[in-house]
Amino acid sequence: MSNPASPPVVGVLAERPPLTFPPGFLWGAATAAYQIEGAATEGGRTPSIWDTFSHTPGRVVAGHTGDVACDHYHRLDRDVALMAELGLRSYRFSVSWSRVQPGGHGPVNQEGLDFYRRLVDQLLANGIEPWLTLYHWDLPQLLEDAGGWPTRDTSARFAEYTSLVAGALGDRVRYWTTLNEPWCSAFLGYGSGAHAPGRSDPADAVRAGHHLMLGHGLAVQALRSSARSDAEVGVTVNLYPVTPATDSPGDADAARRIDALANRFFLDPLLRGAYPVDLMLDLERVADFGHVHEGDLDTIAAPLNLVGINYYSRHVVAAPAAQAPPQPYWRTPSCWPGSEHVRFVTRGVPVTDMDWEIDPPGLVETLQRVYEEYTDLPLYVTENGSAFVDTVVEGHVDDPDRVAYFDAHLRAAHQAITAGVPLRGYFAWSLMDNFEWAWGYTKRFGMIHIDYRSQVRTLKSSGRWYAEVIRRNGLAAQ
Ligand code: IFM
Q1: Extended strands (E) in 50-116
Q2: Is 9 domain-assigned?
Q3: Domain assignment of residue 72, yes or no
Q4: What is the pLDDT along the chain (478 residues), one digit of tens a residue?
Q5: Which residue's C-alpha comes closest to atom 10 of ligand 1?
Q6: In the structure, how many helices (H) and strands (E) does the chain have?
Q7: What CATH number did the domain enclosing 177 receive?
Q8: 429 pocket-lining for ligand 1 (C-beta < 6 Å)
């Protein structure tokens, strides 16, 4: 949580000097299975919650689905060739659970595993370090039908699936993250219902958050026994600095509450082995934490090798307007259970096409906070990027706004390193345009443009720029 909102430094075009990153800094780009693979019904794959959700009218903009997406499943060779062209040192991808274990438990689907084995082998052959995320939001629908993440058994199923993947790929994959952004899975999936499976029950959201973390802890155990001994194991959380709109006590309390739900709900159990007391009090009327069994928090706080942080923007929040009518929380589907009354305010600073404020100093703040308050483990920015409207003009896509966004955030990352933060790598989101969840294909985050009709890939100017950053291990003067 940070001090009352002041305008971010973005937009102040001071001269920007060249910057060099530490030797061995891991430069990468990231994607996720449902967002790019397509081939939704091929090779033995069964539906995930995102197949069901996207096929439900009204859930995703324009009825878009991930049925075909970037057709990466069939265009693997071309896509790895593009990664090599960019000079990526690492590629962060996720495995589709229902592709490799279609029943959500029980036997493995060899055809599904073979797809990822081919991907990993091609990456290695091109000198690109594979970075495997086990869960990027696509729970097998069969497990959702059995109760989903609010149900404790899902954690055990996740560990079983992890063992299968680690058994098959553990000899060649060194970097593993268990979960991607558990806040989204829990609070958008089961709180507001804006994401799959689209349920909105505040108590379920809290339970889901716990079982996701329990699944993470059990998966870490599975990785320790099945992956290679030098495996680097971690988890990715999406973090936000949370700033009160003014220095009023009401706004300060709003910021404390949102910080507890967005950040500390996950950081504290994962890295300190306990839920924050103020968070539990805020959630008193929502959940009694009876779902937390003895020993869970020890499992969740299993020792890690790294922490992945996804950073996009900042939350600026305020107390409810004085005249706001009281709203019983159960009538307000919200991703902020127990704190539904908090107002999110905008400051009028530049935003991306997602309407997210561009705030590079927030990345410094976030990295420093994790380092100073939680851990001295190696940190990685496992996602950072921006959506902007792109147009192809005579076979070229010029995206200076995205270049400026990356440049500013890499300068922030460098500033954190200079301040002593053990930041070891950075992954641009995203390698290519893809299915942006409830926004379908209407938002483009990629460094590679995808024409969804022809599946033609076009390297944007941001991709060329990033290749140069990797080549020189740093930034040129601007
Ligand atoms: O596209 C998503 C990604 O799947 C998870 N992190 C945020 C990105 C942009 O919304």
Answers
A1: 90-94
A2: no
A3: yes
A4: 666 665 444 444 457 889 999 999 999 999 999 999 999 999 999 999 999 999 999 999 999 999 999 999 999 999 999 999 999 999 999 999 999 999 999 999 999 999 999 999 999 999 999 999 999 999 999 999 999 999 999 999 999 999 999 999 999 999 999 999 999 999 999 999 999 999 999 999 999 999 999 999 999 999 999 999 999 999 999 999 999 999 999 999 999 999 999 999 999 999 999 999 999 999 999 999 999 999 999 999 999 999 999 999 999 999 988 776 655 544 468 999 999 999 999 999 999 999 999 999 999 999 999 999 999 999 999 999 999 999 999 999 999 999 999 999 999 999 999 999 999 999 999 999 999 999 999 999 999 999 999 999 999 999 999 999 999 999 998 7
A5: 436
A6: 16, 17
A7: 3.20.20.80
A8: yes
For 452, counting Cβ atoms within 10 Å of its Cβ (0-12 exposed, 13-18 middle, 19+ buried), the class is middle
Its domain, for residue 410, covers: 19-475
Q: Which of 362, 335, 359 is nearest to 349 (CA)?
A: 359
How far does residue 434's CA lie from ligand 1's centre (Å)?
Answer: 10
Identify the residue whose C-alpha is closest to ligand 1 atom 4: 32
pLDDT digits (tens, 9 = 90+) for 97-106: 999 999 999 9
Query: Rounded to two decimals, what is the model's pTM?
Result: 0.96
For 136, how many CA atoms within 13 A lie in the half-sphere containing its CB? 24
Decide whether any atom of ligand 1 lies within 6 Å of the 29 Cβ.
Answer: no
Atom of ligand 1 at shortest range from CA of 434: 1
* Atom nearest to 429 CA in ligand 1: 8
The number of the ligand 1 atom at minimal distance from the alpha carbon of 437 is: 1
pLDDT at 12: 43
Question: CA nearest 241: which of 425, 416, 447, 420?
Answer: 416
**Cα angle at 316 between 311 and 322, to 5 degrees?**
155
**Domain membership flag for residue 5:** no
**pLDDT (tens digit per residue) in 417-448:** 999 999 999 999 999 999 999 999 999 999 99
15 is catalytic: no
> How many domains in the chain?
1
E-state strands within 311-355 = 315-318, 343-344
Residue owning the nearest CA to atom 1 of ligand 1:
436
Paired tokens of 160: 């079983």
Regarding the beta carbon of 32 and ligand 1, being less than 6 Å apart is answered yes
Q: Is 310 in the pocket of ligand 1 (CB under 6 A)?
A: yes
Q: Sign of dihedral through CA atoms 385, 444, 177, 310?
A: positive
Residue 456 in domain: yes
Catalytic residue among 37, 129, 144, 181: 181
Q: Annotated catalytic, 357?
A: no
**Cβ–ligand 1 contact at 436 (below 6 Å):** yes
Give distance in angstroms: CA of 290 to centre of ligand 1.
Answer: 31
